[in-house]
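Exercise 7. Given the components listed, write out the predicted structure of the assembled complex. Treat all entries as one system.
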Amino acid sequence: MTLSPRRLAIDYGLLILLAGLVAVFAVAEPAFLRVNNLFSILQAVAIVALLGVGVTVTMIAGGFDLSVGGLAAFVQMAAAYSLVVLDGSTGSAILLCLGLGILVGLGNAVLIVRLGIPDLLATLGMLFLLAGLQLVPTGGRSIAPGLILLDGSTAQGTFTDGFLALGRHRVWDILPVPVLVLAVVAAALWLVMAWTRFGRVFYAIGGNELAARLAGAPTRLYRVAAYVISATVASIGGILLAARIGRGDVSAGNGLMLDAVAAALIGHAVLGANRPNILGTVVGAVFVGVLLNGLTMLNAPYYLQDLVKGAVLIGALAVTYGLAPRRA
Amino acid sequence: MSRAQARPSRSISAAELLRFGLPAMLALVLAVFSALAPGFLTVANVTGVLVNSVALNAIVALAMTLAVASGGTDLSVGTAVDLGGLAFIAAVSAGQPVALAVFFGLLAGIGTGLFNALLIARLGVTPFLATLGTLFIGHSLQQLATDGGNPVYVPAGRITPALALIGHGSCLGIPLSLWLVLLLSTGIGLLLTRTRFGREVLAVGIQAPAALYSGLPVRRILALISIASGTIAALAGILLSAHVNAYVPYAGNAYLLDSIGAAFIGTALSRTGRANVPGTLLGVALFGFMTNGLLLIGWNFYWQQVGTGVLILLTLILAFAGRERVG
Amino acid sequence: MALAVRGLTKSFGSTRALADVSFDLAAGEALALMGANGAGKSTLVKILCGVHGADTGSITVGGTAVTFASPGQARAHGIVAVHQSVADIGVPTLSVAANLLLDSVCTGHAPVWVGGRGSRRAAAAIAAGIGLDLDLSRTLGTLSLAERQLVAIARAVAHDPAVLILDEPTASLSAPEAERLFTILDRLKSRDVALLYISHRTGDLRRIADRIVVLRDGRVAGRFGRPLDLGAALHAMLGRAVGQATPHRPRPETAPVLRLSRTRLAPGATPFDLIVHAGEVLAVTGPVGAGKSTLAGALFGLWPLAAGDMEFAGRPWRPRSPRDAIRNGVFLAGEDRWRTTFFPATVPFAHIAGTISFPFLDRWSRTGLVARAAERRAAAARIAEFGIRTRGPGDLPSALSGGNQQKVVLARWHAEPARLLLLDEPFQGIDVGARDDIVRAIRSAARERATIVFVNDLEEALAVGDRVVSMAEHAVVEEAADFAEPGTAAAGDPHPLRPAEAPPCHRPPRP
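Answer.
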């Protein structure tokens, strides 16, 4: 097979572009390449990348999960509520968050797999429901220690040091915990999806569900699992988010969904996989992170961020839909 | 299995049930709240709901209805509302005549639609993802144009009678916005049910291959629908900003959820299962009165949001449960 | 005895698909099953592999009576089928190796870790089982139809079946590929696998079959042992001798309507010429994937030719879209009517009148409004003309029988005069009686136009055409002279991913 420029653009376009970006930023601003800065880029994208990984799992199984952003924000509020208002321990907060995530994943699965609602619509509905629910316990206010509750009393709890460490601690003073978590989760899911028979079945369902079912796969079970995995990963993202900002911020979830979906879609194009893949999603998230970090260093106004993200998303869509061979 | 195979007797009774589903639900909401909240079923309150919440929602939902009829979902209607309002207010503030400002506002909507059309019809991106990208870019454009998202107020000296007419005018005692709803819903309703183009839109939305084999210019139809949807949504943006004499960034986003909800509730709870104007209007009214009723009985804004989310999910369940999964 | 079938009967509604079908199949034997469209072959296969249940009758495998509730149970009893269907294409986004291992992976028999050396070896072993010589790391979707067919056969053989059912396995294979398949089948026979081989290509039968059972109208119409008398078998299948009922009609002395010169349907395909005259019905036959639909689509503006020129009514013909073609009087009734013609009941014009009028709305009303009265009148006239059995123009096509549905499709493209009418598989899923009606309808209106009918089935081609040509490897290869052996040199489809030919995603099952 010859490497036509078109082929090259599809296979390596994003990586070449990423290398080019790094080079440009490194020349323009030498501080860009410092190890510390590189890790802060990773820290900045870790949560979005996690959510993107979740979306990717559902995409692999031929579905879509738009509710990850709303779920992360919801979980972030739940963590703060559990710590500050209920004065809970680190462990109980984490368990609560993961439990909520699994519950939401099951809810999505019931709507999509059991009731047959189209995935985009069902998860969009779930997103709006969560966005409303997260505001209810505090009447729409953010949660910080000393919060005055709706009944007039003052919340007694605080963010525990252990919990905060999840978002802020740096292992060996260099590696932020969220980056570590991302690495572990992404590597585990990548192993499962790329190298085990379970992953093979997920991909088979996404490619031709009928063929997978006739080959004997319990396809409904796998689709349920995809949504539960996605929601669980998203709730891990929500825990890290709460730990990083150290309070329950009602507006923390803004834009998370779009960023995550964008990362997953950009990931399609990485290395010419032309299909959802975990590694690609992480690269996609890092790509956007590098771009934003570099632009910030070059003193570009922050409100260019969405423009850049939108342009990158549309570029990725153009590559996936436009350059790649048309698929049925 | 498929609906076509259901025995006639059963499908008719189910169809009859669905035909009355939406009016019945609206009646139920009205009955419950008039019992719970004394001020609910008064002329003042009902008019208030219609003018303040239903009218603009209805316009945006009509735009969404067109998109849904053609088989897509337009996530950028809110963006078109915002950009339409922004262009309009910017032109008014710069001292342009109001008519020209309206033109600029509509142009912004057309531009939004054109951008979607480009992605959908030229690149073949699915409408959902294409309009998602537009949503991003529109967000950033607003920040760029307003130094990071500051409201733009029309200077007191520039508030002309013409502007006040658009924002607060009425005819025969009925506000302009409601007239516009009437006009648009009649137009779009007739378009979808009576005209050739309406048939073509539904054909593309429901069975695109058959539309292509029947000789329809499928991509051109999708492009036209995108542009129409953007333009109509921008109209809502112009009315909104004229009403408050200001452009408020991202105000349009609030319309996105309600318009999706109304268009899909109207589609789901109809006898035919296709996007239709009366269904959309009933859906908008349902949301409007439910929110208002919840407010009157003392629920806070956040519970209203939850209620809306639950309502949408319930609608989706009603619409799709028991149906064979398509594609 | 590997398989014994006794008195199998199956009805769908009032239609009797199978009536008292009995046959035996011994281990190591190849039994050919012949039958025209609608003779009951596919029903029989579906019962044998557990998709349908039989109304009465018994199936015995290796001496034990069995009933199957699912394809999985049939497979557990050693009956494996290779259909020509979406499911058998496998998962187009996965590699060949992953597809070969799909069954074991999906049922949990594979090791947890895949993709490594162990799976490569397992996949290679399955491929070697039928001598499949392919790069196993390629994505299935990039393979030709023929190669995908071989992958599906390899998957089936990997189950170590006692009975292997093959449904027209050579339909998309070239001669060397088919010979490779026969070598594999010989090896399976020598391993005591029983083969049920569905085909009526005499070359295949001569090469592989030990005995033949012929089905016609759901009944066994003949049994033939060695030495095989293929002429008699074809006679039993068609109910008449080949070539007698449809004598060649003389080519009309009219001007050519369509002229293709040096046409290539795919890059690298053989260029061919083709002329179609006014008043003539040309039947184009050939195996699946030979390019019949590609040719039809190129004439109709769905996609361009790879090379060459078309001339229509004396002018160069380069339709940009179906819309363009229809405006110029070139109509195509696409294959799979539920995908290309009918709309589901969710549109307000799904009824017969709306279906017929849809392409011509702009001709019937200049204002942009729908002329409902005109549409009903036109539909009523067509219903009478084509003898469509229905209550009226307001009926939904889904309420009609397959034959009447197809008449609606035909009626639609007779609602306005055509200069060139293209019919792609117009006899799909209809019974023999309806087929004769449709042949008559096509032929009776053919005088004023040129007509091309694209059919897989040779017998249908003979029944409808004044002239029959056959296609293979994306080219018209011959004026079919040896009708019994069309297109022995067919190859795969180089455009397996053409969007307009996606598998249909939703349609009511045929009765």
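Discussion: The longest helix of chain A spans residues 219-245. Chain A has one domain: 9-322.
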